Hints:
By secondary structure, the chain is an alpha+beta fold.
Amino acid sequence: VDRSGSMSGTYINSAKDTLILFLKSIPPGCYFNIIGFGSRFEHLFPKSVPYNQTNLDKAMSHAQGLSANLGGTELLSPLEFVFGQELLPGLPRQIFVLTDGSVSNTQACINVTKKNAHVARVFTFGIGSGASSALVKGLARAGNGGAEFIKEGERMQGKVISSLKKALQPSVTDVELKLSVPPGIEVFQAPSKIPPVFNGEKLVLYGWLKGGAGKSGSGCAVLIGKMLGSPVEHRVDFQLGESSLSPTDIPIVHELASKSLIQDGNGLSVNKTPFKAVDKLKNNGDTMTSTVRRERFVSSSKSSYSKSDDVIYSVELNRLGQTLGIGLHGSERTGQPIVISSIKEGGVAHRTQALQVGDRILAINGESLLNKSIDDAARLLQSAGDVVTLKISKGVVSRRGRPRTRPGGTSARNYKPKYR
């Protein structure tokens, strides 16, 4: 359970509720433990204990008293601790991770999870708008588990029960799609990494062929995987032939395939056919990603910085060591708005098209900028790591269309700019 400082308030309450629901839903015959993590980690029991009334009462009391008092967010050490515990005979290990933010070493956490995927499955819960999809989904994929996101105010019972059911049933893992086609045809697949398949769930994969115009012949698609260590396979044969579509036709399945490709590999906005999308992604030359989630509207009557109703977004950028390429307007005084004043061409923000000049930054990796200065914001960006989650208010401008002046009449041009 994430107990870092960013979990304060509603997020730690959501974590408590989720944990309590988990504790009440564990089936008899299981062993369990609770680990809280932040800059350090703490475990309730020295090792996993039987699920009985005595241990449940202690765990419930612990869950109800949880607080966000463990500093920053460091997940690698608690993961290594859990994976290092001795396995109990006949009891497969299932790990549930509850977090609201991101970490600076996402790939290291994913790598250690994948290394131990043969002995433990990992299920993740992203709490609130700041949860990193790269971390939450990456851990679940590497650990052959499932990922869920819990928004503020959302009922979580269904998602908790769904994850517990998945944890208690076998799944098809190591899933691969093999497409066999005639020579000279290039094959593309999305998503490239296929998650485990659980009972009752559907799996949607897109495969398309480039260079097959005018060609005929046969092909086959084979879906393979493992269940309880045994191989499973499903085969579908198909015929190639002339297409009745004109070059300007874009069927809905092509649009869905393009969307899946973009979500899987890049944050670019490409409203083209799948082939043009593939070409643009291949020519982009990097693997940066962005995810944008709209959260809520804020009425202008409640905000002195907007000229109309603002929309609050959570923007996640994976910059992979590159600079974001944004310039900031702000004040050395706390409590003043920090606004994006420029976007450098070629930078991550420019190429992902996820941010715009005039956006007000409300939080960085879950830490609010409400009482922060421009220097504080710059330091947070510098220490944010490769995955940066920004909570922003779109179009924070005055009625004249420029960054609003701060109290006292000092204009935006006198704000101290910061470039990151």
